[in-house]
Specification:
One of its GO terms (biological process) is cell adhesion. Belongs to the PRPH2/ROM1 family. Helices cover 60% and strands 2% of the residues. The protein has 2 domains: 186 residues, no CATH class; 77 residues, no CATH class. The chain is an all-alpha fold and 342 residues long. Strands 1-2 form a two-stranded antiparallel sheet. The relative contact order is 0.15.
């Protein structure tokens, strides 16, 4: 007995074909959107590549681009089939391709499910890459004369301004590195010399942050130097006063940006899987309804459509039997080949 059978007349078949045609072309638009998001995600990773120590993975955006292209092609083909389904002559040329097409759709849904899982699972890899990359970016901030790091200062400054963040974990990360190049330090000055000599590694450390950490929304002029020295500023206590620099770390800000993007893309692909599944079910009903017409030459006659020709249990049993037969035949062929070789 067929699984989930439905009776169809001409009017229902026409409505189903028209509805499916619209859904398929909606899927094409969604495919274009996924493709565009994949390109955008790839560009964003390229832009932040220095912040990730050039170790970022492009697996997810590449998969998104592939999924978007496949969604457009698969859905456009389905839309064409639905458009021609009510014309017996045109539908006849598509009929042999429908079974492989539905199998292709199942494989495509599996690929989209894999992409969704990667959208959620790869966020941890993004977090670790950002942690290491930002740590090195802060360390190389001063190396404006070093080949390969010339634009690190500009990139990090623009990142802190754009994402309203400061440092890796927070602004105190700048206290642990020398972020001013020796080129701009007056080594003849006793204060500078004492500060350098007092450090074990010979670094010029200070409780200051770059200008890009300043919060322009603060009513007080930016205090970016001597942040922990209360006597250096009038009416100032760094322990209780709200600092007029960004207190959020760039790792948190960038991770939040990328994770929100990946979560949104993941939810869009889940919606696409549901949409494609509805397309597959509708197309199966439409093709079976057209195949079971009592009088194919009379378009007004009734027919019956279904999702599966047999029950779910019988279908799975049949599939398992076919797989076992295929496995047994492969073993026999392998044994015959071994005997022939000896």
């Amino acid at each position: 007995m067929p699984f989930m059978p439905v009776k169809f007349n001409l009017q229902k078949r026409v409505k189903l074909a028209q509805g499916l045609w619209m859904i398929y072309w909606l899927s094409v638009i969604v495919g274009i959107l996924i493709f565009s998001l994949g390109i955008f995600f790839k560009i964003e990773l390229r832009k932040r590549s220095e912040m990730m120590d050039n170790n970022e993975s492009h697996l997810v955006p590449n998969l998104l681009i592939l999924v978007g292209l496949l969604a457009c092609g698969v859905s456009a083909f389905g839309g064409k089939v639905c458009h021609d389904s009510l014309d017996p002559v045109k539908f006849a040329k598509w009929k042999p391709m429908l079974k492989p097409y539905l199998l292709l759709c199942c494989g495509f849904n599996a690929l989209m499910l894999l992409t969704v899982l990667l959208c959620f699972l790869m966020q941890f890899a993004v977090y670790l890459t950002l942690a290491e990359g930002l740590k090195n970016s802060i360390k190389f901030y001063k190396d404006t004369d070093t080949p390969g790091r010339c634009f690190m200062k500009r990139t990090l400054d623009m990142t802190q301004i754009e994402f309203r963040c400061c440092g890796n974990n927070n602004f105190r990360d700048w206290f642990e590195v020398q972020w001013i190049s020796n080129r701009y330090l007056d080594m003849s000055n006793d204060l500078v010399k004492d500060r350098v000599l007092s450090n074990v590694e010979g670094k010029y450390l200070m409780d200051s942050v770059p200008f890009s950490c300043c919060n322009p929304g603060s009513p007080r002029p930016c205090i970016q130097h001597h942040l922990t020295n209360n006597s250096a500023h009038y009416d100032y206590d760094h322990r209780i006063e709200e600092l007029n620099i960004w207190t959020r770390g760039c790792r948190e800000a960038l991770f939040s940006y990328f994770s929100n993007m990946m979560n949104s893309i993941g939810m869009l692909i889940i919606a696409t899987i549901i949409l494609e599944s509805a397309d597959m079910a509708g197309l199966k009903y439409l093709t079976t309804a057209l195949e079971t017409m009592e009088d194919p030459e009379n378009p007004e006659c009734e027919s019956e459509g279904w999702l599966l020709e047999k029950s779910v249990k019988e279908t799975f049993s049949e599939m398992l039997a076919k797989m076992k037969t295929l496995g047994a035949s492969n073993q026999v062929e392998g044994g015959d080949a071994a005997e022939a070789a000896t």
